């Protein structure tokens, strides 16, 4: 293997111009598969959701799923695409053990949706991502390599195939190449996938769970010298989180720059992102369209969506995320910069749901952008996966608003919630974290603090009220932070007035 020095990211982007493109696969949330009546429930026992059609047994004929076609049209409309008046399916021929037919029923030169765009915000700048095509196909099965250390075929002793996923409706959304974004390329890629995920969720066409594979992203990256033709691209396959999309682009830019600096050339190939190391490893050489020997699917009739039906679907589209964020920004009373921070953290829906559960906008933002965001960053998780629900966050803030706990105690309560000890009120009771409200007990603690600090008490009696902070701190320490600081301060000034 050829070794070469890797530049820093800033060095790489100062010498080369990156061009990115993204191919996103979305498993639709239909009840049945694309061309048969098998159920699509995730997590079923292997090979229990199969039939002669999705197993490609001789003589079995497919029938297209109308709900999947409708969902694809709605996706295309939400992405500002033109909807084809006539299109058809094609056979994409290649051999994988988890594809029973040895071809995939997909679309090639006549896709259902074409020529759209999505606008994303990165560092206060709007970047328009062109959409080349949105087409409908079927998913493959799933291969599990066992007996090795990595879960990949190299080193495995055997491979097992589960065909439950084979035939599930799959929408592929392909962007046009995105040049001219320079060092922002990783952030633009992440922002695009985040915006796309939000759009798909708003349409209710998929659960878009990247960790379960219902939203998977292939990231194409190339480099060229300023003013030169675009370079050879690599395709990093099946990246499964927003953070990993950003890391994969950054890693490929650094790797390709190092290889080009050393006089090497980029091989057009698929690569695999390594979550543990943050780099990419080679997969296989990348095929071209001719290698797949596309030809029209003879067992399915062409599709000709009625323009009146398409118009009805367009009129019924829900409020899309970009419009919704503008509305929420006004309702929440936050600046554009603050709203962008909320978007970047993946917290829009979490905050919205927390407010719906009874919290104020400020209270919801405080927890999701503060303690919970910190924990998510430390663990490398998406914010939605950190372990607290919007209802629990609203309950936590409600305890603070009611004066039962202060912010310091609330963080201890949150720790218990994240540890699985129950909802906030239950954690507060079990850990004995409620604010001390017994005036007698607080007065005794205040008297002890005054007696232990006569010099500070004398300053307060002389009118130096600011010195009360030291006595407040002593009382808070004595009560393990369970006293209300304002009440303690009032008692101190009352006793020393």
UniProtKB/TrEMBL annotation:
PROSITE patterns: GATB. Gene3D superfamilies: 1.10.10.410. Keywords: ATP-binding, Ligase, Nucleotide-binding, Protein biosynthesis. Signal peptide: none annotated. One of its GO terms (molecular function) is ATP binding. It comes from the Bacteria. It catalyses: L-glutamyl-tRNA(Gln) + L-glutamine + ATP + H2O = L-glutaminyl-tRNA(Gln) + L-glutamate + ADP + phosphate + H(+); L-aspartyl-tRNA(Asn) + L-glutamine + ATP + H2O = L-asparaginyl-tRNA(Asn) + L-glutamate + ADP + phosphate + 2 H(+). Residues 349-496 form the Asn/Gln amidotransferase domain. Belongs to the GatB/GatE family. GatB subfamily. Allows the formation of correctly charged Asn-tRNA(Asn) or Gln-tRNA(Gln) through the transamidation of misacylated Asp-tRNA(Asn) or Glu-tRNA(Gln) in organisms which lack either or both of asparaginyl-tRNA or glutaminyl-tRNA synthetases. The reaction takes place in the presence of glutamine and ATP through an activated phospho-Asp-tRNA(Asn) or phospho-Glu-tRNA(Gln). Heterotrimer of A, B and C subunits. HAMAP family: GatB. This is Aspartyl/glutamyl-tRNA(Asn/Gln) amidotransferase subunit B. It comes from Spirilliplanes yamanashiensis. The lineage of its organism: Bacteria, Bacillati, Actinomycetota, Actinomycetes, Micromonosporales. The gene is gatB.
